[in-house]
């Protein structure tokens, strides 16, 4: 392992002087707040993932370091299965279901809120969908999420027949309580260091 400053490593990249498969320890990474160990994949490029997790990114699912910008992108996969049991909405945690990176689920007005265990810098993507029990219901239930940096707000709608045709109207969490039915939630979020 070779210990160098970020400037020294960038100079080696420019001159095509990196040693492929060598691990470079950047001693002043993340504006001098971190230590990043990355492997050269050619004489002028690095693999994006640190060889050893950084202190900043160790508690995330995936981390990538961009030497050009001196930024560490730490990414988490957040997910849970949401269900109403006994009039209370929560995530399911049992032999067949496990929430990931979720602190709790609460209701706020007509919304179901999934609170994350961390706060992030950016949202990379998300999806929320109803299971086969909901999709087969006569209510024509659909859902969508407003995705934030520390929580997602799930809104439920039902399909109604009006004079002009079909329309969507908000569905309260109490109205959406169909025994054994689930809402599947997932999001990928990123925290940026440096």
Description:
The chain is mainly beta and 194 residues long. 9% of the residues lie in helices and 50% in strands. The chain has three helices and 13 strands; from the N terminus they run E-H-E-H-E-E-E-E-E-E-E-H-E-E-E-E. Strands 4, 5, 6, 9 and 13 form a five-stranded antiparallel sheet that branches. A hairpin with a 2-residue loop joins strand 7 and strand 8. It is elongated. The protein starts with a strand and ends with a strand. 28% of the residues are buried. The model has no long low-confidence stretch (mean pLDDT 95).
List keywords for this structure.
mainly beta, 3 helices, single chain, elongated, 9% helix, five-stranded antiparallel β-sheet, 194 residues
């Amino acid at each position: 392992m070779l210990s160098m400053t970020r400037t020294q490593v960038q100079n080696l990249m420019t001159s095509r002087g990196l040693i492929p498969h060598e691990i470079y320890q950047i001693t002043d990474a993340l504006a001098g707040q971190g230590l990043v160990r990355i492997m050269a994949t050619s004489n002028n490029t690095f693999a994006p993932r640190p060889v050893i997790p950084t202190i900043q990114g160790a508690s995330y699912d995936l981390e990538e370091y961009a030497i050009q910008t001196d930024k560490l992108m730490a990414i988490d996969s957040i997910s849970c299965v949401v269900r109403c049991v006994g009039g209370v909405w929560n995530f399911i945690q049992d032999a067949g279901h496990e929430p990931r990176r979720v602190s709790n689920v609460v209701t706020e007005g007509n919304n179901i809120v999934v609170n994350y265990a961390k706060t992030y810098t950016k949202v990379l993507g998300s999806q929320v969908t109803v299971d086969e029990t909901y999709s087969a219901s006569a209510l024509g239930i659909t859902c969508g999420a407003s995705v934030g940096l520390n929580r997602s707000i799930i809104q439920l709608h039902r399909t109604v027949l009006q004079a002009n045709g079909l329309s969507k109207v908000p569905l309260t969490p109490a109205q959406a309580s169909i025994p054994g039915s689930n809402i599947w939630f997932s999001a990928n979020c990123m925290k940026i260091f440096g």
